[in-house]
Request: fold
Amino acid sequence: MTKKGSSVAVVVPSYNEEHLIEQVVNTMPDYVDRIYIVDDASTDETVAKVQRMVKKVGQQRLRIIEMPKNSGVGAAIVRGYQEGIKDKMDVMAVMAGDAQMDPDDLEHVLMPVISGEADYVKGNRLFTGEAWQIIPRYRYLGNAFLSLLTKISSGYWHIADSQTGYTAISLETAEMLPLEELFPRYGYPNHILAMLNVYRRRVRDVPVRPVYNIGEKSGIRLWREIPGLIILLTRNFLWRMLQKYVIRDFHPLIFFYLMAVLLLGASAPLFARMVLRMVETGNVPPINTLTFIFTAITGLQSLFFAMWFDMEYNKELR
Reply:
């Protein structure tokens, strides 16, 4: 890999990774200048193992940052970014402490940022046909569902696999973002995309190999996380609409989204009334039917027009 004069750092958020953290450090490519192990208040031997490795590798390349309390993976990544900003690292990647990110893919994740083609890069495990066989089915389907919602929420319609944490960011972009405002836990990847869109940063997907069943233990229970993530994605969407299309600029897609909400909202009670009258009398009033058809079709058309406008407006951010 040609670094083209760029300094490279890797942020490794870790929580109770005593069994795999050494593998992550030992397999890190030689071109990585700094490795920031951000320990999120582990209760096992993670910190002790990293401290022993620091003595062998040297603090110039390997550094451990201990969070004062368990704050979440997003908060750990932000802390690593802050260290990279202080050290003026040109590009900062994120690789988890559970060795689920193939170090051979790091070059592909870094290069669009190093070459200036993108400001932020996300790994995509769904590009290849292997993903369906390797990733546990419930996680694959959950990721696909959240990725669809994240497209709408973030405005990056070309991005898939929203939940992967294998990323790279440029120093300029990291300095620009209000990192302290980012969601501290599992919804961090979704929140940062919405923020990047408001700041008009170019984001790119690159294929990475999914890695599972190597001894990692996931603390994520997707069925418990999804309701909270849907709330977060809704908040991200509303914040992005306000910031991007009202405060910083104005775009008529706001009116289409508002019209869609009003019309589709009105069609719900109309449909309920149709069903109720059908059950009670066996007949549906024609005016009720026509009104429902009008509000539902017009509402869907408004929604699709708003999405199309959003896609067109964000095409340059690929």
